[in-house]
Amino acid sequence: MLTTEEKTQAVIAALEDVKAQKITVIDTSKLSSMFERMVIASAQSTRQTKALADNVVVKLKERGEKIYGREGEDSGEWILVDLGEVLVHVMQPAVRDYYNLEELWSKAQAARPKLAQAPK
Q: What is the pTM of this model?
């Protein structure tokens, strides 16, 4: 079984194999008890989106990792691959811009210290 870091690096390598663009890793370990890393990547077509998600699944299974779920393959605009402590989002650029997960999670990170210091 891979560590979170090893799993994240394996995901990045799998995405780079199929020429993913704008790969971003967000450390969510202090923001969510459900997962520790979120990897976001862009694809230029629905065919590439599916190929990227497929490659992540194949490469991680080869390393003995369990795939907990895959969603979004029907449209191919946004595919989520659930690897337990690592979530992978493969998105078309327009969808990625619209949902802007990087900004959403960075705002959550910025708000967290304030929440932790709230008066009792």
A: 0.86
Backbone phi and psi for residue 44, each to the nearest 5 degrees, phi listed first: -90, -10
Phi, psi of 90 (to 5 degrees): -110, 120
The pLDDT tens digits of the residues spanning 40-82 come to 999 999 999 999 999 999 999 999 999 999 999 898 899 999 9
64 CB-near residues (< 8 Å, 6+ apart): 1, 2
Domains of the chain and CATH, by start? 4-114 (3.30.460.10)
What's the distance, CA 93 to chain centroid? 15
Residue that the structure tokens 């890793």 belong to: 25
C-alpha 118, offset from chain centre? 30
CA 2/CA 9 separation, integer angstroms: 10
| Reduced 3-state DSSP string for 12-35 | HHHHHHCCCEEEEEEECCCCCCCC
